[in-house]
Amino acid sequence: MNKRDYMNTSVQEPPLDYSFRSIHVIQDLVNEEPRTGLRPLKRSKSGKSLTQSLWLNNNVLNDLRDFNQVASQLLEHPENLAWIDLSFNDLTSIDPVLTTFFNLSVLYLHGNSIQHLGEVNKLALLPRLRSLTLHGNPMEEEKGYRQYVLCTLPHITTFDFSGVTKADRTTAEVWKRMNIKPKKARIKQNTL
């Protein structure tokens, strides 16, 4: 199967679903059987999944160590991952490994333990990210939560399962002007 065929067919493939498996570390996925859905998973000749969706929700993950390595073991084309569901785990930060999946358009991180709103900045590297969930994390309690996320990630169209409206974007821009100081250019001073 060439790459073009893969891109055209795998979007419809069911997800590689490891939800509700009590997974503690990513490496456990290698020995765990994914959940079966209504349609069987298609696999490559090497036995790897041809899906673009990886569901790891409702587990007990607290970090994503070895995520790239394990994704490469499970998926024929891990670089084409478009949907990752890590909701309802014990993650305390947004691991930079997620920013290596440039085709990622849906990322669910709700119901974790992510403390700091600044973690969202890492996701600005994902050019195709359109749908993001972060509700149910301690960061949600920070003042300006929604506006900060919308300013940082202007391309998302759905945030916390709500569509992003023009009014949301306007409010976020006003909030940004009032709350985020622009970086000042440094001026070199000539000293004699």
From TrEMBL:
<protein>
    <recommendedName>
        <fullName>Leucine-rich repeat-containing protein 51</fullName>
    </recommendedName>
</protein>
<keyword id="KW-0677">Repeat</keyword>
<keyword id="KW-0963">Cytoplasm</keyword>
<dbReference type="InterPro" id="IPR001611">
    <property type="entry name" value="Leu-rich_rpt"/>
</dbReference>
<keyword id="KW-0433">Leucine-rich repeat</keyword>
<dbReference type="GO" id="GO:0005737">
    <property type="term" value="C:cytoplasm"/>
</dbReference>
<dbReference type="InterPro" id="IPR032675">
    <property type="entry name" value="LRR_dom_sf"/>
</dbReference>
<dbReference type="Pfam" id="PF14580">
    <property type="entry name" value="LRR_9"/>
</dbReference>
